[in-house]
Specification:
Two copies of one chain form a homodimer. Chain A is of the alpha+beta class. Chain A contains six helices and three strands. The structure holds a DNA duplex. Chains A, B: InterPro entries: ArsR-like_HTH (IPR011991), HTH_ArsR_DNA-bd_dom (IPR001845), WH-like_DNA-bd_sf (IPR036388), WH_DNA-bd_sf (IPR036390).
Chain lengths: 104, 104
DNA sequence: TTGACATGCAACCATTTGGTTGCCTATTGT
DNA sequence: ACAATAGGCAACCAAATGGTTGCATGTCAA
């Protein structure tokens, strides 16, 4: 879980996930196109995404195809964000009350 | 949005949010209790959470009360995770197909 | 078979991050 | 009034991070 959060913390990595979401199964070079970053930098980001299990790769000859794995993202939603949804209204109400009390 | 992802990337910060979720409106010292970290380290984390708007503080005399703001977390769920939920099954199916093709 | 293409590896670098310590300031209870 | 309490500020530090460059390797196509 921690690896996933860490992987998602970087904007470049999130945009790589966006790219794969738009078109799955891209090669490294395809993913580099139009990015203001060296190929090696992209490689490093992809390795981090792989280690977080957000991306799975398949070698096909000299090419490496990258596939989005949506499961960890889904788990963040289910296991983490959901927890804070419960009690969200209570927390918001309390926050509002305290902020109003402050102005007295 | 980026600030929120960055803030959530650290496990200590996520556990501070957990603590506030369990009991809202805690002081700095209360939030420090039982943590293997100096008070100043906790302060730094709380500042980052405040800057990401995940925590709102209210001074009350010499005490500073910390309140959880669940809105940014909710937004991550709505604006970001949701996007990947759409097409999740398609992505999973494609991933499965490619992984099977590999073994041929 | 050999040159071009796709990717991998390693060393290096600056900046950010997460933490510490020491001291200062403000508020409160007795 | 004053000691204890709650928190703030600043300097410092090691390690992690995000990036670079140069070169090596593996695969394909002419």
């Amino acid at each position: 879980m921690d690896e996933v959060f860490k992987a998602l913390a970087d904007g470049s990595r999130r945009s790589l996930l966006d790219r794969l979401h738009a078109r799955n199964g891209q090669t490294l070079n395809e993913l580099c196109e139009g990015l203001a970053m060296s190929r090696q930098a992209v490689t490093k980001h992809l390795v981090i995404l792989e280690e977080a299990n957000l991306v799975t790769t398949i070698r096909h000859g000299r090419e490496k195809l990258h596939y989005l794995n949506p499961v960890p993202i889904h788990q963040i939603g289910e296991r983490w964000i959901r927890k804070f949804e419960r009690g969200k209204l209570a927390a918001l109400g309390e926050l509002k009350r305290q902020l109003e009390k402050r102005d007295e």
